[in-house]
Design goal:
The relative contact order is 0.23. This protein is α+β, with helices and mostly antiparallel strands. A hairpin with a 2-residue loop joins β1 and β2. The protein is built from two helices and seven strands, in the order ββαββββαβ. Pfam families: Asp23 (PF03780). InterPro entries: Asp23 (IPR005531).
């Protein structure tokens, strides 16, 4: 459980995986993002994640009942990274807070590669 919300009828508990999936899907909706990156611990290389494993490039932590989100992405060559990053941050913050009701305090976008 990464966070919980107390309602009048009970509690809502969110797992890290649920929040990471929302973050991953929100990221992939943004223009210029080729995919999520996952570190291969054995070789130390970053690789593009294939298929529906969007939460593999996302780390979610909770501090004082606010979320701290770190994500690792690969962007398309020729796109402005600062514009892509700002778009990602705004979309993730809106989607996570809108879907879950949890507060997002920090979002860190790590660009791990550029694809042609």
């Amino acid at each position: 459980m990464i966070a919980s919300i107390a309602e009048e009828n009970g509690y809502i508990d969110y797992s890290e995986e649920v929040v990471a999936n929302i973050v991953g899907l929100s990221t992939m909706e943004c223009y210029g993002v080729v995919g999520m990156a996952s570190k291969n611990a054995k070789d130390g290389f970053w690789e593009l994640i294939k298929g529906g494993s969007f939460n593999k490039g996302v780390r979610v932590r909770s501090q004082n009942n606010e979320l701290i989100i770190e994500l690792y992405i690969i962007v398309e060559y020729g796109t402005k990274i600062s514009v892509i990053s700002n778009s990602i941050i705004q979309r993730i913050k809106y989607n996570v807070e809108n879907y879950t009701g949890l507060k997002v305090s920090t979002i860190t976008v790590n660009v791990q590669g550029v694809r042609v």
